[in-house]
Design a protein that fits this description.
With 304 residues, the protein is α/β, with parallel strands linked by helices. The chain has helices spanning 25-38, 60-77, 101-110, 128-137, 165-173, 178-194, 201-217, 226-249, 255-269, 279-300; strands spanning 4-5, 14-15, 43-46, 51-54, 83-88, 91-96, 118-122, 143-148, 157-159. Strand 5 (83-88) and strand 6 (91-96) form a beta hairpin. The longest helix is centred in the last third of the chain and has 24 residues, at 226-249.
């Protein structure tokens, strides 16, 4: 996030000035660890530039609710410290106020003899201040700022978020199970529409793909009956879940197992296409995310 930067063709990385108070983490860690314990699927990551609480594997609604509460508590605890509380993608980060991407960009520009072209790309909230800074300072030269996904942004351009998990799952299952692949894309399209991205050219293409794939699949029961479709997707998702669960319970869990748990949770989430998710399925989704987080934590600590 800007602590280190390097000029093109340079061998060495440069670092922004370190914070004056190296003990600031002691005031932050207990609070973040408290929320990690209270939020299944979340975890704390220590970085050289800051400390981050991640909730991307937690229940989405509960994770956002906890994140809002955490930010409010951090603002109260850190009110008089030179620290920044940053809302990232499914994460809350605390870092020194002087360490951010715009600071790194300003340091890079200060070392240049002149600027006649600017290209900046990023996919998260931490990139937005960079886009705003560049628009203010370099509007007189060819400027291309680009974000990933159609959303409110200070960037001038965007590229489609083709790596969205449900699109990725659809691509992976296209030959293995075209019906599951279809409903993964269908769920991705629903998410795009409900998020206000219905004008997205990428979404239009996705809808065209859905129509073509529906014709190709033909008169499969899942294409005309929601109950049959839900049962088909559920059976597939449970097979993926069982594969990860078996590895875990037999003591063979590793990073691959964690990934399989996450993939299983995403296939189970696709069932929301057919209405409210069954409570038993919802519990499996939470469990899969929690086990994935625990396994990755164990891997980082060298326990698996």
């Amino acid at each position: 996030h800007g602590l280190f930067y390097r000029h093109p063709r340079a061998a060495d990385w440069l670092r922004l000035p370190a914070p004056a108070d190296p003990l600031w983490r002691d005031a932050v860690l207990p609070l973040l660890q408290h929320y990690a314990e209270r939020t299944p699927g979340s975890f704390v990551e220590l970085k050289e530039a800051g400390v981050t609480w991640h909730f991307r594997n937690a229940d989405p609604e509960f994770g956002e609710w906890q994140a809002n509460e955490l930010r409010a508590n951090l603002e109260r605890v850190l009110a008089h410290r030179p620290l920044a509380i940053v809302s990232a993608n499914k994460a809350v980060e605390v870092r020194p106020a002087r360490v951010d991407k715009p600071a790194a960009v300003r340091a890079i520009v200060a070392d240049l003899s002149g600027v006649d072209f600017v290209l900046a790309a990023g996919d998260g909230r931490a990139d937005e201040p960079v886009f705003s800074y560049l628009a203010q300072e370099f509007g007189h030269v060819p400027l291309f700022t680009t974000t990933v996904g159609r959303k409110p942004t200070a960037a001038r351009y965007y590229v489609p978020d083709v790596d969205a998990p449900y699109i990725q799952r659809a691509q992976e299952t296209a030959t293995v199970d075209p019906v599951v692949s279809y409903f993964c894309k269908y769920y991705a399209a629903r998410l795009a529409i409900t998020s206000g991205n219905s004008a997205d050219g990428f979404l239009s293409g996705l809808l065209d793909e859905l129509e073509a794939e529906k014709l190709k699949i033909g008169d499969h029961a899942s294409m005309v009956n929601d109950a049959a479709a839900s049962a088909h997707v559920l059976a597939f998702a449970l097979r993926v879940f069982a594969r990860a669960d078996t590895e875990d319970r037999e003591g063979r869990a590793g990073k691959g197992t964690a990934k399989t748990f996450i993939i299983a949770s995403q296939f189970l989430q696709v069932l929301a296409s057919f209405g409210d998710i069954d409570p038993g399925v919802a519990e499996k989704i939470k469990y899969a995310k929690w086990r994935a987080t625990e396994i990755l934590k164990a891997a980082r600590e060298g326990r698996v």
